[in-house]
Amino acid sequence: MAKMSAENEIEMRICDYLRRHGRSTVQDIFKELKLEKSTVNRHLYSLQASKQVFKTVEDNKRPVWDLVESMNDEQKAKPEQIKPEMTRDAIEEKHVKDLLKSGGLKASHIASKLGQQTQSTNKLLYGLMEKGEVRKCSKSHMWTLKNDQERNGSGSDRKLTSVSGMSQTFDVIEELGDGGYGFVCKVKHKIDDKIYAVKRVEFNSEAEPEVKALARLDHPNIVRYFTCWPDSDNWMSNQETNEKSNTTGSSTDTDDTNERSASDDDVADDEDDDDDDVSDDVTLGMESLTFTESTSAAKASGQCDPTNHRTYLFIQMEFCEGGTLTSWIGERNYRGKQRIALEIHRIFYEISSGVEYIHSNNLIHRDLKPDNILFNDGKVKIGDFGLVAAQKNPSGDPIERSKRKGTPTYMSPEQENLRNYDEKTDIFPLGLMWFEMLWKISSGMERAEIWTNLRNQKLPDQFCERYPAENKFIEKMLSVTPEDRPHVKDIRLNLETFFSLHQNSLSQKTI
Q1: I want to staple 266 with a disulfide (CB 3.0 to 4.6 A). Which of 107, 165, 412, 459 is the partner?
Q2: TM segments (predicted)?
Q3: Among 83, 114, 137, residue at a domain's last position
Q4: Does residue 280 have an active-site annotation?
């Protein structure tokens, strides 16, 4: 909690500075606040992702930052200045690339600058390398940015179209997201002309639980799964391959963009611990969902080595065109769109119904947050099952899990600190989201203060006065002790009892 409070304090200081001084550059802010430039940059992009600040750049000058609440009408008419859908992974990748603009750096040095563990930084670097944006020198272990010519053909366009299983079946419309847990794009099927979302993840032991859970779940409040398939892609572009072959046997210091051995001083001990809860327990009853013997044989024989091909798993899912709960909340908080209590309770009721169904199938989602709550055809859809896990093993015993799997802002205390936890870990973020849907938070400073208190089971007095019934439920959901939190079924039943969805009076109260 101390680390979280320190992070929040920095963002509060930045917002306070902008409120007093208005439009400012990074240099203005870090000099005044006596902080590292990289620290200020990191927090500014975090505040931008939560739509607290926005950035403008004119005539190749330094970016200028200001509070969203200070935007004039002309700026508000240009929503591209605010990036509500920017994910935490995208923000952190931007921080890494900003640091590399000054020259080559080791992963450990980048991690130190960003205040991260080297393990987290390595994940970001190898993700950027997969996109063709950075490379690594095999001798010095230094990471550098690729220039425009080197990136040509190695970025998202190539990633979207070069894989045979994609290009033969779908027309790619646009990239929807790209982060540590996979790459997602919006596609149109060439035969049925329907729009889908296709997620691409690296085909390893952590990929199968997600697709097997999706295939097993069939509920109106869960993103619909259609099919999946393994496929491979050239890990290096043709240009990189030619460069590598031309320098084979040379003593010249070459860029080994594929080296990821345990002997690397930046990589050793930095890979994720095997997540014991990602196991066959998730796949009970899913024997029919198997993968070809040739794929497994290829992986075992080394044919999927990065210097040759890398195998991916492609997951075809329902495309949700209504956006995310993050955007829904942002429109109310920063664009003045009113929300009625009836609408809020209906949305939360559907979220609870979806989570109840997940839990009834002996699963835990582990990454519930507004980014993973989607809307489509007037229905709420829970998505992103990349961290799904079984509640218990086949014998009914608890499963020892890896710590800190999930999103720190929303994960429960036990998910952050313990290895043993159950489905009650999903109740904690549900409480946070219900509060966030009901209560307007207008600034970064306000959010930082409220969020810290919420995670300590302290709700604002005004909220308690205005929403006495909701307050009681949310307070229980945010209990530090998991046993004190209600089951999601009880939450849903209480929603039906205390907040009748047919109660006309609710529709008159705006939030």
Answers
A1: 107
A2: none
A3: 83
A4: no
